[in-house]
Amino acid sequence: MIRIWPWILTPLTACVVGAMFALPGVVGLGIALEPRWSAARLLLEAHACSIATILIAAALSWSDFDQSNPFTFFLSLG
How many structural domains are present in the chain? Predict the structure, then answer.
């Protein structure tokens, strides 16, 4: 993914970004396995805050993205 990523990544940065994109899957599993809504609600609130922060960071640094790379738009939506 380093070659096609919309901005320059080092191997360490690729690991960090991969962890950020793995977050929704882990949160989804946690919510699916948690029988109590009160505990799942906390996970969902934390997840919503993290996604909002990611979207704000992407908007603030949009000029750093490679606009000619078609993956830029797919990755920013995901």
Answer: 1
Considering the domain boundaries, does residue 52 fall inside one? yes
- pLDDT band per the 50, 70, 90 thresholds, residue 77: low
Query: Taking the CB of residue 6, how many other CB atoms lie within 10 A of it?
Result: 19
Q: Is the pTM of this model over 0.85?
A: no
Residue 68 structure tokens: 């000619």
3-state SS assignment for residue 8: coil
Using the structure block, give the residue that is written with the tokens 């940065």.
13
Between CA 28 and CA 59, with CA 11 as vertex, the angle to 5 degrees is: 60
In a domain, 62, yes or no: yes
Contacts of range 24-30, beta carbons closer than 8 Å, 24 or more positions apart: 24/51
Query: Does residue 2 sit within a domain?
Result: no
The Cα 32–Cα 3 span in angstroms is: 34
